[in-house]
Protein 1
Amino acid sequence: MNSLDIWASDLVKISHARSYRLPGYLFVECVPAKSLDVGARSKTKEALALATVRAENIVSALLNPQKVYVLRFGESSENEHFHIIPRTDALLQKYLSENDDSAPYNGAKITSWLWERSASLGYSERDINDFISRARVHAAD
């Protein structure tokens, strides 16, 4: 387990994002499969679904976000993975301070904004490490 890993099984793992400086920005990665459709056994699919739910529950319990975005990608990593992004009130307020927007908000626009500005949101390494420590305890329950 590396410093960003929160929980793992033999098929999937949950880890904190390295590139995005937002406590609770998680990855759920299907370790052995590059696609959910080709060659992925039903056991792997089930493990991935359960890990995604586990990650969303961790974020919800620890951060109480207004929304949790779940996005599926496979561009930057060959392994199939999901991004779990907490849209907290603090994140929304930072977004609104730079954007003229009103509810209902567009999660894709907020996510794109986050990707461009995550390094400047003011979260420290300690904030990220504190979240990871608390998430590991919660994941073990």
Protein 2
Amino acid sequence: MSSLPHTNGEAAREWIEMTFWRYDIGIEVLKKKGDTKEAVRNFSSATESALKAVYIKHETIYPRTHEIGELIQGCPDPTVQEVTAGYSEEFVKYFSKNYLAPYVQVKPIALEKVEECRKFAERIIEWAEDIVTK
């Protein structure tokens, strides 16, 4: 039996709402300001929230980390491996780094890389929403 509240389904849905909000901010920042670093930072934050929503839905306490790779590795839903298939560990580290330390990037992120990050975030968000709303 979990020590999480009985409202974990509701809490997971709230996390998914936060996920969409962060993702949308990333899109807006990219469109209005052209700030690729801030856009990727928001995509990464949205991905983190989506993964944590899945932990909550599964009544599993998530690790206190922003590291996407760690959240994927410990994810209580095994289908996460299918969703992240095709993305290298190197890419996931790069994606996380942009959230953890966006100031490391001196130059703007190339638009092709931003699009790859956006698609990765979108893929995980859609998967998480499906799990949370089942």
